[in-house]
Amino acid sequence: MTEHRITVAGVAVDTRHWIGGERIASAGTFTDVSPIDGSALGDIARGGPGEAAAAVAAAKAAFPDWAASSRAERARILHAIADGVEKRIEELAIVETTDNGALLRSHRRGVMPRVAHNFRFFADWLLTLDHEDFETRGHTNHVSWDPAGPCVLITPWNAPLMLATWKVAPALAAGNTVVLKPAEWSPLTASLLADIAAEAGLPAGVLNVVQGYGSEIGDALTSHPDVRRISFTGSVPTARRIAESAAANLTPLSLELGGKSPLLVFADADLDLAVDLAVEQYDNAGQVCLAATRFLVEESVAEEFTRRFVGRATALNQGDPRDEATDIGPNIHSRQLEKIDGFVQRALAAGARAVIGGHRGDGQYYAPTLLTDVRQDSEIVQEEVFGPVLTLQTFADEDEAIRLANDTRFGLAATVATGSRERAERITSQLVAGTVWVNCFFVRDLQAPFGGSRLSGVGREGGTWSFDFYCDLKNTVTAPNGWKNHG
Ligand code: NAD
Predict the structure, then answer these.
(1) Which terminus of the chain has fewer Cβ atoms in its 10 Å neighbourhood, N or C?
(2) pLDDT digits (tens, 9 = 90+) for 109-164
(3) Is CATH 2.40.340.10 the classification given to domain 5-257+456-475?
(4) Ligand 1 centre from 69 Cα, in Å?
(5) Closest ligand 1 atom to 457 CA
(6) For the chain, what are the domain ranges?
(7) Hey, is 73 helix, strand or coil?
(8) 68: CA distance to ligand 1 center in Å?
(9) Where are the beta strands (DSSP E) in 117-252?
(10) pLDDT grade, residue 487 (50/70/90)?
(11) Measured in angstroms, how far is the CA atom of residue 283 from the centroid of ligand 1?
(12) How does pLDDT run across 338-387, given as a tens digit for each residue?
């Protein structure tokens, strides 16, 4: 028993799957490594098709009762999970930081409170969810959101518990049961979530957590005929594989994928604000899907913008993410670091100039980098790096700004810095993006639709859109006559 529990920064974490309300081990394990210092944190259960089948079977068995529970009961349990998260914010924050290297202060003050909010928001939204009935020639149409069945939720490592719970909460609120598969580079907080949910009274089998490599356990989950929804956040190549696998049963998919989003800075913008927004793009060591990694700056202010940006960026503290003073932590894995450096070295070889950075730091850190003299059709401008690597291009006028902004295969987000409301309206209406921020960045309300256009995703989640995805919408049409027991 005890060999399946590891202690991470003083917190006990179970390394096994959580299936049908029980901890289940696998014959094999994989080693989870901290990006902070490369130390091994523990050996985690390495699930495969057998564990996938067991987890889906548990979710299927638990589905009828959970689906039949009242909205009020589900909301009560989701709030109890939120209470459990709030009680364990410090533990969740330090475990997540140790596991994925993102800043402890962000986890403590922003991310983990948001995890609790994910549960509270969808619990409350569930209770308000209703369509007005409408009439057709005296017949009443009543639309209901029916639970769909077992859902497979697959998540990445850059914001593990945040992104997992943004799916788990609405899926459970909708009356579905869940199999959650966290990323193999950050498996720990999903295991803690299983403990918290059980303590909150979530019935066995309603939430299952399976660990392992996507390549080994993924297909068995996504091709399973009893799975009625798949929500995936991750990379485009994995999304393609999942879509192929889901095609066997035409399982509905929600895909939240990568980006190559622009920050457009116009000459009429508050330049200090624009630089604030620009520096934020190094958050989480650049491992943010929504990051505005392409700076597009109006020619007349490009030199001054660059000067101020360099001043700010070179003053950022890079170091141990547990330290309150740190601004940029390590990248997740040595393989990710190699990938990042590959992009940068190929860009430099193709003629790009590093205004700052352009090389690795010590250990698993990458020097915050800004590249200029980059061509629009070059790899560094077109492909997602997912590291602290930004590019800067200039534009002469609005038309060129929009053309450059829209000229990638992605369409996740865009950020616009301008002092003109009219310009903002003109520009935003032409940008291809799921989210556009004007003179701000990363303001995310759970009521809003969230997702990407083009290769950045399929579908939208958030608010009612989450329930539209996780439910089978049903329209019941009732005739005014035909009753035998009236009058
Ligand atoms: P990834 O695609 O490599 O892995 C994501 C998850 O998919 C992991 O849990 C992995 O184990 C699993 N997986 C891998 N192969 C699988 C398969 N064949 N079947 C089923 N599951 C499989 O992505 P990553 O490197 O973990 O995450 C980074 C990517 O995620 C970036 O592209 C980033 O932009 C994107 N992302 C998008 C959003 C968004 O909301 N749009 C948010 C965060 C991250």
Answers:
(1) C
(2) 999 999 999 999 999 999 999 888 999 999 999 999 999 999 999 999 999 999 99
(3) no
(4) 32
(5) 41
(6) 5-257+456-475, 262-438
(7) helix
(8) 32
(9) 134-136, 139-147, 150-154, 177-181, 207-209, 229-233
(10) low
(11) 19
(12) 999 999 999 999 999 999 999 999 999 999 999 999 999 999 999 999 99
Q: Please name the CATH architecture into which domain 262-438 falls.
A: 3-Layer(aba) Sandwich (3.40)
Ligand 1 center to 39 CA (angstroms): 23
- Residue 104, pLDDT above cutoff 90: yes
Q: Which two tokens stand for residue 268?
A: 């009429």
Label residues 237-259 b or e (16+ Cβ within 10 Å = b). Answer: ebbebbbebbeeeebbbbbbbbb
List the alpha helices (DSSP H) in 69-111.
Answer: 71-87, 89-100, 104-106
Residue nearest to atom 43 of ligand 1 (CA): 289
The one-character DSSP state at 184 is T
Mean of pLDDT values over 44-51: 98
Question: For ligand 1, is residue 434 a contact (CB within 6 Å)?
Answer: no
Pocket test for ligand 1, best of 163, 233, 331 (most atoms within 8 A of CB): 233
Query: Mean pLDDT, to the nearest integer, of 306-322?
Result: 98
CA 348, 354, 356, 359: dihedral to nearest 10 degrees?
10
Active site residues: 256, 289
Region 406-415 average pLDDT: 98
